[in-house]
Amino acid sequence: MTELGEGQFWGYRRADGSVGVRNHVLILPTITCATQAAKQITELVSGTVSFIHQHGCAQVGVDYEQTFRTYAGMGLNPNVYGVVVLGLGCETHQARSVAGEIAKSGKPVEVVSIQDHGGTLYTIAEGAKIAARMVQEASMLRREPCHIGELIVGTECGGSDACSGLSANPAVGVVSDKIVDGGGTSILAETTELIGAEHLLARRAVNDHVAKRVYEVIQAMESRALMMGIDIRTGNPSPGNIKGGLSSLEEKSLGASNKAGSRPLKELIDYAERPTERGLVWMDTPGHDIEQLTGMVAGGSQVVLFTTGRGTPTGSPIAPVIKISTNTPIFEKMNDNIDFNAGTVIDGTESIEAVGDRLYEEMLQVCSGKLTKAEVLKQHDFGIWRIGPTF
Amino acid sequence: MDRATEGYKLVMIKPQDHVAVALMSIPAGTELAFSCQDSRFEVTLLEPIEFGHKFAVRDIAQGEDILKYGEVIGAALCGISKGAHVHVHNLEGKRGRGDQV
């Protein structure tokens, strides 16, 4: 058996050259009306995943485009072997258009529509037949040695406490630097939770354009609160953040920005957009955990590092989410959900660098196939950041 | 960041900060002596400080910017005495304040 070298893991190589760390068949409902049929296909066919959502119709303009990009991005994620796109027929987000976008990657894609196939039961039968065939094909693939330079790693913090900025987030920063140094991509996101820390990141931008974009996305996010005439603290920091000792959004942001390590900021991308640069990249997303996670996964993240001080169950249907506790008590209390403890920094028994090195090894193991707790518990969260009203 | 030597765990990140963070619950009246880089601090807690919460390491005037990580995390709503709990009751965020537009 081949030995793995430094920075390598066992992954699946796709037709477009990208590398997956999982090998799912995705049942992708592009309209809320098809989510129940999609869920029933996953119950019939082992090896398939799906998700519930409430979108895909009566959307226009940039909001339509962002939702479209999210659907297509989920199918295009390298962790997905093949896709059965499930539509209704009369909706604005046409299943066939989403399938066409995914097909450009060369992966197997087929469309089933409830109106064309004569109702729910025929649709489930047809979708399940296609999915069963894809699952068997997918099972023939073998993992091969791949390198971290081929990874897009999402970073996230959710349910933060005062320890987040002291232990887990700086440890993720250590991993982020190692990924970037290995030629890979690390995504920093949750623009809301960078309000108050933007000047530190703008200073690290590779050029004036990226630095300008940093201030633009921060201003756009902050102005949403200003236009509503409310104090953003009524929603962020959350009651749990406050109980954990965080007093303001700025304090939370300064802790959150530690996830970005110390490397230059190469690019600022839109929600659910695939990075075009390698290195540290900022995706413009809200602080909402599931919307942020979905944006990064639709943007191509094969694996996500997720820190938490209060404890969360968060997971994705297609990407492993490694949950990292900021303090030891929550690691012990919510051990069903949390994979890794960075609270040793707070306990004074381990340095940030040592925790970062340990987390990097854990990430490589997960990329080679070790299941995260969210995967074992089938925590298939999905949520789109809507930027316009429903009509 | 440096730690206390008195048996109570706490952290102060930058010497110019106005606050330190308790890494365990510390009772009122506790006399703490600790350093941050080359600066020495001696603080007697005026209130109990819970795990993860902040206390003032120096007197802070009303309206003054409050620093942690060497950066502004908000402003003092009232005068805050050294050793007092610093949280949402006496620190206000300055960003995203649509209520002040």
From TrEMBL, chain A:
The keyword Repressor does not apply. GO terms for molecular function: hydrolase activity; lyase activity. Signal peptide: none annotated. Residues 150-389 form the D-galactarate/Altronate dehydratase C-terminal domain. GO terms for biological process: D-galacturonate catabolic process. Keywords: Hydrolase, Lyase. It comes from the Bacteria. The keyword Endoplasmic reticulum does not apply. Residues 11-139 form the D-galactarate/Altronate dehydratase second domain. InterPro entries: GD_AH_C, GD_AH_second, UxaA_altronate/galactarate_dh. Belongs to the UxaA family. This is UxaA family hydrolase. It comes from Paenibacillus arenilitoris.
From TrEMBL, chain B:
InterPro entries: SAF, SAF_UxaA/GarD, UxaA_altronate/galactarate_dh. It comes from the Bacteria. GO terms for biological process: D-galacturonate catabolic process. Keywords: Hydrolase, Lyase. Gene3D superfamilies: 2.30.130.110. The keyword Hydrolase applies. Signal peptide: none annotated. GO terms for molecular function: hydrolase activity; lyase activity. CDD domains: SAF_AH_GD (cd11613). It holds the Pfam family SAF. This is UxaA family hydrolase. It comes from Paenibacillus arenilitoris. The lineage of its organism: Bacteria, Bacillati, Bacillota, Bacilli, Bacillales.
